[in-house]
Amino acid sequence: MRPAWDFLVVGAGPAGSWIAERFAKRGADVLLFDPKAPWEKPCGGGLTAAALRHTPELLELEDESTEIEELLVVAPGGASVVIPLRKPYRVVSRLTLSGWGLERAQAAGVRLLRRAVRSAHFDHACWQVTDSSGVAHRGRWLVCADGATSPLRRQLAPDLRPELAPTRVMYPSSGAPPGRAVFLFLPAAKGYLWDFPRPGHHSTGIGVAPGTFAKGDLDGAVLQYSLAEGGDNGSAAAPRGAVIATSAWKSGRFSDLAGSNYVILGDAAGLANPATGEGIDYAFRSATLAADVFHEATGFKGFPRAARKTFAAEMRRARLVRRWLYRPGFADWLITRSRHSPRAALLLMSLSDAINEHGSLVSAFARALFAGPPDLQTAQTVCQCPDGVEGVAPAEELDVAAITGRSALH
Ligand SMILES: Cc1cc2nc3c(=O)[nH]c(=O)nc-3n(C[C@H](O)[C@H](O)[C@H](O)COP(=O)(O)OP(=O)(O)OC[C@H]3O[C@@H](n4cnc5c(N)ncnc54)[C@H](O)[C@@H]3O)c2cc1C
Fold first, then answer.
1. Domain with 145 in it
2. Rg over CA atoms, the chain
3. Is residue 11 part of a domain?
């Protein structure tokens, strides 16, 4: 029997909608499954400078996102400093991002089916996918982009086991001032709390290494932070949970990410950054890469090699950053020193810029060591105004220990 569709795409997150649009634009018949989209997926919604560079179309969301120009970084011991970013990043609600991606895909001719995929199997030279209503759909190629807990990944690539990092997130009405994001490192150095201002609300959440904190303690920390920031927690829903599938894989290899007639993308492929939790850029890039690979050779066989070439070095760097960033005492030392030493402030600035821009760590250290006058001048300003030029440093009123201090299980 002839397949009705060229592509069956499971999941309309950034990865799924993006690849669906790429194929439809080339004239393919694409069926996209998602029971919820568009929706407010639990997320910070941070689009790093690297994400904006790799996928410039995201700048279409300029009016519906906020710009972050500086970071308030708070050490586990409570010391804090405000540092400027060399390049801004943006924050968008996931409902907006999801709606934007879907609209583009549908405008290109993609058909959206608001149902979950229950099973998929390959038979008679095509994929047969059964949806939540029990209806079967046949397609030549399958794209698995159903997110961090992907049941399809377990079927297609049973050996691939990304690390699943827990998070809790809520959306209060107030928090950090416009233009500023907050990163508060946790004691026991196992993660951080964030506050990202979005248009009309904030994403405030906490992400940690698996097995380090109890859920109740994480919720307590997010609520405490939000209350300290004047958050209207009565109207904000209680924290919700979700996991991030990071590239600190427990097992698996790039060759697990595709066969000639299927490909696994984004969080389903476990591509998020294990140091920061950033995954939107990897979702878009893996989708772009898979579409390019497909059009070169009419199949996904070349995807593992291309993905290794594109992502392996970044994945290694992210694991290195995580080891350093969360080394006991490192964040306390660097942030405390940054209030007084321009060289330390510059190191903190260069590391933050390297993370935001996906730059090399060697260049970040070199910049801190051999800085030119403009960088040194900025670092000097950081030391003179460690609470930011506006002097708005909510961390001084925050009892960091009360928020996070007694939460560590280890
Ligand atoms: C709390 C939190 C904060 C984060 N903050 C950031 C951040 O600030 N910046 C950043 O870059 N990254 C962040 N991330 C990571 C980011 O959310 C993900 O990396 C990104 O969404 C991955 O995109 P994706 O398209 O692969 O998957 P998703 O966005 O998860 O999309 C998967 C889609 O598949 C659908 N789906 C699931 N099962 C099925 C099924 N059976 N059938 C059909 N459809 C299905 C879902 O409804 C969903 O729409 C955060 C993650 C979390 C949990």
1. 1-42+93-162+246-326
2. 22
3. yes
Query: Does the Cβ of 242 fall within 6 Å of ligand 1?
Result: yes
Confirm whether 187 is domain-assigned.
no
Task: Specify the residue with its C-alpha closest to ligand 1, atom 42.
Answer: 116
Is the CB of residue 129 below 6 angstroms from any atom belonging to ligand 1?
no
Indicate if ligand 1 lies below 6 Å from the C-beta of 41: yes
237 vs 304: CA distance, rounded Å: 40
CB of 277 closer than 6 A to ligand 1?
yes
The response to whether residue 131 sits with its C-beta less than 6 Å from ligand 1 reads no
Pair of tokens at residue 68: 């972050």
Cα–Cα dist 246/249, whole Å:
7
The CA 147 to ligand 1 mean position distance, Å, reads: 5
- Identify the pLDDT of residue 408: 46
Strands in 80-92's sheet, in edge-to-edge order, are: 46-47, 80-92, 65-74, 180-185, 191-198, 201-208, 161-170, 240-251
CA of 255 to the centre of ligand 1 (A): 22
Nearest alpha carbon, ligand 1 atom 40: 116
Average pLDDT on 242-253 reads 96
Q: What is the pLDDT of residue 407?
A: 47
pLDDT digits (tens, 9 = 90+) for 356-398: 999 999 999 999 999 888 899 999 999 988 887 665 555 444 5
Q: What angle do CA 211, 172, 64 make, to 5 degrees?
A: 105
Is residue 112 a part of any domain in this protein?
A: yes
Residue 326 pLDDT: 86
pTM beyond cutoff 0.85: yes
In this prediction, residue 324 carries a pLDDT of: 86
Q: Given a cut of 90, is residue 148 above it in pLDDT?
A: yes
Residue type, 262: Y
Which residue is closest in CA terms to ligand 1's atom 29? Answer: 13
User: Which CATH number do you get for residue 38?
Assistant: 3.50.50.60
Q: Determine which helix (DSSP H) or strand (DSSP E) holds 367, and give its type and residue range.
A: helix 361-369
The tally of domains found in the chain comes to 1
Asked if residue 272 has pLDDT above 50, the reply is: yes
Distance 115 CA to ligand 1 centre (A): 17
Please give the average per-residue pLDDT across 334-340, as a whole number: 95
Q: What average pLDDT does the chain have?
A: 92
